Amino acid sequence: MEYRNLGRSGLKVSTLCLGTMTFGEPVEGQFMHGLGSPPEVAHAILERALDAGVNFIDTADVYGQDGLSERVIGDWFAKTGRRDEVVLATKFRFRMGAGPNGTGASRLRIMRACEASLQRLKTDRIDLYQIHMQDLDTPEDETLRALDDLVRQGKVLYLGASNYAAYRLVESLWISEREHLSRFVSLQPEYSLVTRAIEREHVPLCERFGLGIIPWSPLGGGFLSGKYRRGDEAPAGSRLAKWKERLPAADADRHWNILDLVNQLADKHGASPSQVALAWVLKKRGVSSAIFGARTLAQLDDNLKAASLVLGADEVDALDKVSAVPMGYPYEFMARVQGRW
Q1: Radius of gyration (Cα) for the chain, nearest Å?
Q2: Rounded distance between C-alpha atoms, residue 286 and residue 283, angstroms
Q3: How many domains, in total, are found in the chain?
Q4: Fewer CB in 10 Å around end: N or C, the chain?
């Protein structure tokens, strides 16, 4: 397993980060119902991942019912005593309670959310505390001041952002510098061969200001996992069978062309499509670690092999070309003049 610094911080994380959105089985009607792992399976996945060198796990208070994922992880910490082997990341922002203050990124909400996560996770600190999405109803300086207080209290060690617009992220970094507050060290965006929009502004921004990129959904919501074939129905029990609107339409040639090449490279390397998709994203600028999920030990074992898969420069270039998206103005204008933006 390779380890990289998280952005310009001194924190070292494994290039593969275990995502835990599927930990625990939510009741019917709750998000991820029917797609979760029972606690005993989740605990086995955690054990094997750490034994394989993964030291980075990511969760969120909103994953599962009433903080289910965090509770499953907290029970594992209590059972095994392996808390100090883990760089623990969690997130806050989305609704976890009733009323106007049950959601958002106000000082009141952040303080309550952090205490609740600490209790569920059965730990005294969160290594990387991330805001799950910017809050347009709360001034950024209020959010940052509250997060800085948590750092000063020792309840949080590092701060990160997820699903931020580039303009808001720059504003946040500027406020942190101006007010001498703890700054974000990472950005967790959606990024994969099928979703490359962050290359317009977020990737250059993160490189310029030293934020480590932690892609979520590097398998394109499971589309690049190898389960799907052009013209076929999504397999029963898969995420894209449950959420059919996420399966590319029959005329979405770009998506299927990407998948065709991923499958070809997988065959060439004796690897799985998931491994190829993960290996590609780990080659991209600014990426510190890629988040992958696993509902079973077999899925975990397969994805872990991506850490050792080496794609040639020509193969990465071919994947870049087949998955290319129009950058639009002014990026293409700048690229024509200087060859980059």
Answers
A1: 20
A2: 9
A3: 1
A4: N
Angle, CA of 243, 244 and 247, to the nearest 5°: 110
| Residue 258, domain extent | 3-338
Claim: this prediction has a pTM higher than 0.85? yes
User: Side chain identity at 196, as an amino acid letter?
Assistant: R
Tell me: the pLDDT tens digits for 43-99? Answer: 999 999 999 999 999 999 999 988 999 999 999 999 999 999 999 999 999 999 999
What would the two tokens of residue 258 be? 């990407």
Nearest-angstrom CA–CA distance, 224 and 191: 12
75 burial level (CB within 10 Å; 0-12, 13-18, 19+): middle
Beta strands at 87-92 and 126-131: parallel, antiparallel or unpaired: parallel
Joined tokens for residue 316: 């990465």
Query: How many other CB atoms are found less than 10 A from the CB of residue 210?
Result: 17
Q: What is the secondary structure of 270-323 as a DSSP string? A: T--HHHHHHHHHHTSTTB--EEEE-SSHHHHHHHHGGGG----HHHHHHHHHHT
Q: Is 63 a catalytic residue?
A: yes
CATH classification at residue 55: 3.20.20.100
Structure tokens at 176: 């942190």
Pick the catalytic residue: 3, 63, 191, 329?
A: 63
Neighbours of 3 (CB within 10 A): 15
